[in-house]
Amino acid sequence: MTARIRVRGIYSTALTRVLLTSGYDVVQASPPIRRRFDESFDDTDHDVDVETTNDRQGVGVGGESAVVADVVETLRVGTDTLAWESQTPRGAVFDARVVETLGGGAVCDLGEGEGYLPYHVTDAHVEEGDELRVQVRADRPPWSGDRAELGTTLETDAGLATLVAGKRGVTVDTRDDAAGRELAGMTDLLGVDVPDGWGIRWRHAATDADMETLRTALTDAVDRATALASVRDEPIEAPSRRLRPASTSWVWFGRESRFALDDYRREVATTMPGHHRTKAGAEAASAGVDFAEALCVPEGEFPFDVVTRQFGPVEGDTVSIGHGKPDGRLITLGRGEVVEHGPDGTLAVRREMGGSGTYDALGVDQEPGDVALTKFREGRWWYPTVYRSHEGEVKGTYVNVCTPVECFPDVVRYVDLHVDVVKHADGAVERVDDDELDDAVEAGELSEALAEKARSVASSLESAL
After folding, report:
1. Pick the CATH number of 93-152 from 3.40.630.120, 2.40.50.140, 1.10.10.60, 2.60.120.560
2. Do residues 222 and 163 lie in contact, with contact meaning Cβ atoms separated by under 8 Å?
3. pTM to 2 decimal places
4. Model confidence at 357: pLDDT above 90
5. What number of CA atoms fall less than 13 Å from residue 306's CA on the CB side?
């Protein structure tokens, strides 16, 4: 059977086009998607959920493991599309050990990472060293730096229907009270035996589903509850994973991928140059993009100067440098002042450096008063940083090779590709970290195509410097 995909967020139109072209069924489509496509969308339950991350940098893909893996490969629309499988997918059950208590919750060792248990979701008093059975309520993308959120009540999420241990009756997550009451009243007519000690919670989308779809969803939830019951009363062996009913992968779209998604969207709807690049940068930009596209058919190149003048960054603003790593982590290389803003996509960012440590690969000590001037250019596969002493003496230049740079309102974002080129104060040029790039390819963190692009860029920089 063809996998059924539910899509939500700023990439919905483009990804719906990608998925339909690849032979998937898109279900529970939103009203805008129904208007844009000459397709008939079913309201049946979904096998995989594709939803934009809160920071709009990519999407989370959740569902059955084999299908998730296939969908992720389908969503690799550009060379700089990167993906990572989560060790703490939503719905997974762990035996956890509390390793730290904070003001609002506890940090738990899960054996395959860490999670965060808010105090308000459990009636038990939680202290460091406690061992308890938990379930992942919400996963987080690796670049966010946040831990997965945990709960102590076991639930079985089967899409439209969820069973909740220790609850009774039927609830419906909807603002349509009449539709909710009707669905709650219909539940007994489905003829599905729900185990004792489990309550039913329906999603809002269930109010539009037919009886057979509801029956199938509830049956799936009951089957999953049976699997959960098998570990519910077993002795706790922390830290360890007890059950993983589904998988989650996180897909990050680089700049070239966002423009590829523009092309897919343009096949079905008016799409301005840089549609997804602009929307990814600021929540406020979404309404502006929609307004512009409703008025006319924008053409030409991505209007970097217009977008940044409206939403930032501009001269005088402060931005951070979001240094993504091929394993999914995000490291912030400090914040600096924008001292130059060019209409061609150039930003110069000035940072005052600390007085300890050394500059990577340059082998020169950091000293109080040192200044780093970094020049970014939107869309470029590299950027240089010149380090100077307090007196203005050049200490060296470090050129970072990365996925195409994106200059968002409060952060300059890219993923580091390991290999770099440095120019020492005496003029000597050195290429470094090719071995780390090779290791990343071997580990499956980077594709060979992306690695080859990084090597090519590094070779060109060696010649130019």
Report:
1. 2.40.50.140
2. yes
3. 0.93
4. no
5. 14
